[in-house]
């Protein structure tokens, strides 16, 4: 994604334009509460997995399982961003080849 941004002249990946992006990414980057909730939930999943490894208890397991939907949402945003970056890079390559 960094290479695509540098080729397109974009300063950051979080500048989202509603007409160009997926609604999930739009809400993820324009609403700080959504961004914070997803980032915290994602990290709590990893903390829960680590804690469960060292102290396997039902409580830790249940708390970790509750974070899985948030982790899945974050992974979905990663895949959407990857797909978008690959498409932008391919479009840029085609445009450069046609010159």
What is the fold's blueprint, element by element?
Elements lengths: L1 H7 L14 H8 L1 H23 L3 H9 L1 H31 L1
Describe what you observe in this structure:
- The chain is mainly α.
- Helices cover 79% and strands 0% of the residues.
- It is elongated.
Q: What structural class should be given to the helix and strand makeup? A: mainly alpha
- The amount of helix comes to over 70%
Per DSSP, the total helix count is 5
| Large-scale geometry | elongated
> How many beta-strand runs?
0
Low-confidence stretches: none
Q: Please provide the ordered H/E string of secondary-structure elements.
A: HHHHH
- What is the average per-residue confidence, as pLDDT, rounded to a whole number? 85
Q: What's the story with the biggest beta sheet?
A: none
Radius of gyration: 18 Å
Quote the distance from N terminus to C terminus. Answer: 24 Å
What percentage of amino acids are in beta strands?
under 5%
């Amino acid at each position: 994604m960094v290479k695509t941004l540098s080729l397109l002249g974009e300063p950051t990946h979080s500048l989202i334009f509603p007409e160009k992006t997926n609604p999930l990414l739009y809400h993820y980057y324009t609403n700080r509460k959504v961004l914070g909730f997803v980032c915290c939930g994602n990290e709590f999943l990893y903390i829960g997995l680590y804690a469960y490894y060292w102290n396997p208890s039902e409580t830790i397991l249940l708390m970790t399982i509750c974070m899985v939907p948030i982790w899945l949402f974050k992974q979905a945003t990663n895949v959407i961003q990857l797909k978008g970056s690959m498409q932008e890079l391919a479009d840029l390559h085609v445009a450069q080849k046609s010159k």
